[in-house]
Amino acid sequence: MRMKTVIVPVIMALLLVFPVLASASGIIQDVENFTGKENVTSWHLLGAKAASIAMEQLSFTKGDENVLAMTNAGYAIINGQTTEKCIDGVTAVSGCTVGKGNLLLIHRSKEKPLWFAFFKKDTKELVYLQVNNAVAGKPLTEINKLTDKEIFVKITKESIGLNDLLNNPGQWEEKVKNKVFEGNEFSLIGIANVWAHPKCTYDFLQVIQFHNHVCPGVNSGYLIIKYLDKMLPLQPGQEYKIIACPPWCKDDAFQVILDTTVGKKGIYVKALTKEQEEKLPPEAKTIAGLYIRWDGKSGSGDGLALGFDFDKVRKLAGVADYSGPEWISKLKMNMELMEYLDNPETLITTLKRFKVDADELAALQAAGVNPLVEIGLMKETKGGADIVLKIGAEAATKNGKTVQLAQPAQIINDRAMVPLRFISEALGASVEWEEDTQTVHITVN
User: Fold this and answer.
1) Are 408 and 392 in contact (CB under 8 A)?
2) Residues whose CB falls within 8 Å of the CB of residue 163, separated by 6 or more in sequence, listed in order
3) Cβ-count burial of 378 within 10 angstroms (0-12 exposed, 13-18 middle, 19+ buried)?
4) 411 vs 182: CA distance, rounded Å
């Protein structure tokens, strides 16, 4: 009896002293089973430890398909080393995989910190972990001895369900300002909530991963693709040529799903100036670009100029007059847009149909050409100016800006006489005075 009394406390003490070692050993065993014992690296361990911590904090078991894992591993580069092996570590321990649609690789620039996030659908809770760069890449045996707080500079858990955000906008605005997820708040909250939506599809998740967040802009691009499937479907041997005028987040969706990239000359980006936007006719104010179904064999294409109604989205989402944080209104719009994946025509309209041959397509794609003018959707602007000139005033305005005059406008013999140099230069001409002949030369550029 005396021996048992001594042994039990000793065993309990050992369990209290070495739980980390026991847990780490189990994690490594999972990774070894997944990759092969000889292939395990410290990078695998980082992903595995992140998954293990999340499993404990969110109370889920390996293979739970109601859990989403997100990371920028594979994109982050630390001390010259790539981080893709972390992904296998996450899968080995959590069971989250690309094939199940619950492992998303979020595109980020290579210099960004390495992070992991895990979201549980039923509780709407998310655990975020950011790796300490100082320990990343160290030998496996060294990292295995470190505590969680030494490996990760940030471990935080928050409830990010839509209702929680809408019921506590002020509280969440403060959390966003304090970077509760180290600047990834909008990205992670949006992606997690859309992933949990029953209508979310894997091709849309691919767009989200590339775009690295969900917003009404990228969502509109996905809806435009759905619209094209109905109104301008491709036939064998055809491809889309897109004129992104004006450009916004939508264009990332086209690159991912339609493979219309800049490098492959599938998409041409053209911004409108403020003046050009103001001169769009009322029926073209919603312009969302030109979409051409191109047949290379015949050298011809059928085109649609499409409009996307963001004002209608705001009304449908109930945020037309919303005065709270902008990112919350965008989240509400995102969730509303998910309801129209099968009915994109609710928000998208065909502004104009047109046809092009090879030369006309080249003209639409050319630098310095306004494609909306080319297809007759708006009138050409000649670079004029809005000038306000009052008789006797020593200053005038050009496009809203005040300009001092060398000579004010005057009434002489019932005719309005205006300063020639100011008017000419305001309209883009150059003015020269020839003293010998007392002649003014005006050259229109």
Assistant:
1) yes
2) none
3) buried
4) 66
Using CA atoms, how far residue 155 sits from 4, 120, 151, in Å, is 41, 16, 10
Residue with tokens 């004029």: 384
C-beta atoms surrounding 38 within 10 Å: 6
* DSSP, residue by residue, 215-279: -HHHHHHHHHHHHHHHHS---TTEEEEEEESS--THHHHHHHHT---TTTT-EEE-PPPHHHHHT
DSSP annotation of 319 reads -
Q: Residue 257's closest CA among 274, 239, 275, 230?
A: 239
Query: How far, rounded to the nearest angstrom, does the alpha carbon of residue 385 sit from its chain's CA centroid?
Result: 35
Q: Which domains are present in the chain? A: 15-196 (3.30.1330.130), 218-374 (3.30.1330), 387-444 (no CATH)
The model carries a pTM of 0.82
Per-residue pLDDT of the chain (445 residues; tens, 9 = 90+): 444 444 444 444 433 333 443 356 689 999 999 999 999 999 999 999 999 999 999 999 999 999 999 999 999 999 999 999 999 999 999 999 999 999 999 999 999 999 999 999 999 999 999 999 999 989 999 998 999 999 999 999 999 999 889 888 999 999 999 999 999 999 999 999 999 999 999 999 999 999 999 999 999 999 999 999 999 999 999 999 999 999 999 999 999 999 999 999 999 999 999 989 999 999 999 999 999 999 999 999 999 999 999 999 999 999 999 988 999 999 999 999 999 999 999 999 999 999 999 999 999 999 999 999 999 999 876 555 667 888 888 888 875 678 888 888 888 876 778 888 887 777 778 888 888 888 888 887 6
Give the number of other Cβ atoms within 10 Å of residue 62's Cβ. 14
CB 113 within 8 A of CB 76: yes
Q: Residue 240: name the closest of 230, 250, 252, 225 by CA.
A: 225
Burial of 151 (0-12, 13-18, 19+ CB in 10 A): buried
Q: Rounded to an integer, what distance in angstroms lies between the CA atom of residue 75 and that of residue 212?
A: 12
Q: How crowded is the C-beta side of 219, counted as CA atoms within 13 Å?
A: 25
